[in-house]
Amino acid sequence: MKYTSTRNNSLKIDSALAIKQGLSTEGGLFVPEEFPQISLEEIEKIAKLSYVEKATYILKKFLTDYKVKEVRECAVKAYSGAKFDKRKPAPLVKLSDSEFVLELWHGPTCAFKDMALQILPHLLTTAMAKTGEDKTVVILVATSGDTGKAALEGFKDVDGTKIIVFYPSDGVSDIQKLQMITQEGKNVCVSGIYGNFDDAQTGVKTIFTDNEVKEKLLNKNYVLSSANSINWGRLAPQIVYYISAYCDMLISGEITLGDKINVCVPTGNFGNILAAYYAMKMGLPVNKLICASNCNNILTDFMQTGTYDRNRQFHTTISPSMDILISSNLERLLYDLSGCDDKVVSGLMNELRETGKYTVPGNIFEQIREFFWAGCCDDYFTKERIYKVKERHNYTADTHTAVALDVYNQYKEQTGDNTKTVIASTASPYKFNESVLSALGKESEMANKDDFELLELLSKVSGTDIPKGLKTLKNKKIRFNNVCDKNDMLKAVEKFLK
Ligand SMILES: *Cc1c(COP(=O)(O)O)cnc(C)c1O
User: Fold this and answer.
1) pLDDT given at position 86
2) Which of 48, 233, 348, 454 could crosslink 358 through cysteines, CB 3.0-4.6 Å?
3) Which of 165, 110, 109 is nearest to 428 (CA)?
4) Which residue among 146, 152, 263, 401 is best mutated to probe the pocket of ligand 1, counting the most ligand atoms within 8 A of its Cβ?
5) Per-residue pLDDT band at 274 (split at 50, 70, 90)
């Protein structure tokens, strides 16, 4: 199976090259030419297998140029052993008859990004070997908080790679910042920027598409790649957990083979929900994909009107990993819904760059209405939802998951649909402890406590254990406290590689 670009579909390359390169040279995103299918019989067959085996089985369908043995080795390094704190990397927790929380944050950095970023470095180094690459791959990351840390953890001390991460210096939580600036490893670099996530992402994209920069780096034996969710090697592993969740519901008797489920995802860059769409394209029985946004509700408006318009105010919220106005992966959805029309996609992306908005053709909009439902939730209702879910189900959700739980509730009220719904839980509540504790009404107990005392308090209030990765932060040294202008990102890269 070959991969092509959303902006040039005459391109045909293997998955290894797509993963190594990250982004296509003309700025498009790599997508598989067709979608491998998974039958109900196959789903039933893999249901009882371990997560590693499920991942191997599903990923092999996309990575046809990898040997099964290679895929399995990558999956073993990522999902077994010491990296995930439970035997199951992605457990499903039943809240009510229709709500099933898919906890994707049991990895080393306590956010769902670990699900993909623990395996990506291995898929990438395998790809380097397969394509005869002898240069050092430089991973360039723009992060709204969680990707950065997860990528740093995934790539730290991986031979043949270096990684540099840019984050908006005032756009991440204290814990997120601390996680990044204390990062260990000999091949890592972290820098804040004065700007928001979109500025960071735009800066990274600019460096990527600059041919002069590319030449300069090549001469020094470096090649750039990305660990952002635009990399196919990040997206593919995310398909696995939706199929795994379906398997878990089969095994627990919640559904019978062939029953449809809904999937509700707290969305930012549109990677996670796109993976659910791809799972549906493969044959997973899905009724609706519910796209949940915070008050940066550009996707809600888009899905309700067909017009994507980024000419609006950017809001900093208590769910910062969703504070995004340009959802890069939406381009892949548009490509698919346009019937793989690179001209249509290039046109829309040009409009977006030049005017900040675009309106999709009617045939694309109709399909969006058919497959998706979208809603949003502001900080007030996010907090209220955290409180309600704790009261009703004794479950402590983080702020991002709470957005999804709230939007799911809106969906259910407005449609009356009782279909069992998998709600993606994308971060541990400990990662956003201040907002969560305040939502739970613990303000007076929070007074004068530092971040680590807050972790203890949340442990007491929620009756759960503090994740290992956060508990040990306290004793770590700060290694990276520099912040640069958003126009100086290239300089920071050059300095790191000197
Ligand atoms: C990255 C992230 C999201 C958004 O996921 P996308 O794939 O970018 O849509 C949501 N919640 C958390 C906690 C995240 O880290």
Assistant:
1) 64
2) 348
3) 110
4) 146
5) very high
Task: Give the domain ranges of the chain.
Answer: 92-109+233-431
Six-digit token string for 117: 């970023």
Residue 279, helix vs strand vs coil: helix
The answer for residues whose C-beta is within 8 angstroms of residue 157's C-beta and 6 or more apart is: 185, 186, 187
Residue 101, φ and ψ in degrees, nearest 5: -90, 120
Long-range contacts of 212-217 (CB under 8 A, 24+ apart): 213/490, 217/138, 217/497
Q: If pLDDT is split at 50, 70 and 90, which confidence band does 103 have?
A: very high
- The rounded Å distance from CA 428 to ligand 1 centre is 12
pLDDT value at position 119?
A: 96
Please list the active-site residues: 113
Does this model's pTM top 0.85? My answer is yes
If you measure from the C-alpha of residue 33 to the centroid of ligand 1, how many angstroms do you get, rounded to a whole number?
26
Ligand 1 atom index nearest CA of 112 = 15
Q: What's the 65 CA to ligand 1 centre distance in angstroms?
A: 29
| DSSP reduced 3-state for 72 | helix
Q: For residues 174 and 140, is the Cβ–Cβ distance under 8 A?
A: no
Phi, psi of 162 (to 5 degrees): -130, 155
User: Which of 195, 285, 272, 249 is closest to 486 using CA atoms?
Assistant: 195
Tokens for 198? 């979109």
Q: Measure CA 113 to chain center.
A: 5
Contact present, 345 and 7 (Cβ < 8 Å): yes
Q: In a 3-state reduction of DSSP, which class is residue 75?
A: helix
| 198 alpha carbon, distance to own chain's centre | 15
Q: Residue 80: CB partners within 8 Å, gap ≥ 6? A: 50, 52
- Interhelix angle for 379-393 vs 399-415, to 10°? 80
CB–CB of 30/9 below 8 Å?
A: no
pLDDT digits (tens, 9 = 90+) for 444-475: 999 999 989 999 999 999 999 999 889 999 89
Residues 6+ apart with CB under 8 A from 354: none
- Residue 84 has a pLDDT of 84
**What pLDDT was estimated at residue 22?**
86
Looking at the domain 92-109+233-431, which fold is it? Answer: Rossmann fold (3.40.50)
CA torsion sign, 227 to 229 to 232 to 235? positive
CA 81 to CA 75: how far, in whole Å? 11
Mean pLDDT to the nearest integer, 56-80: 96
Which residues have C-beta atoms less than 6 Å from ligand 1? Answer: 111-113, 146, 229, 266-272, 321-322, 400, 426-427
Residue nearest to atom 4 of ligand 1 (CA): 268
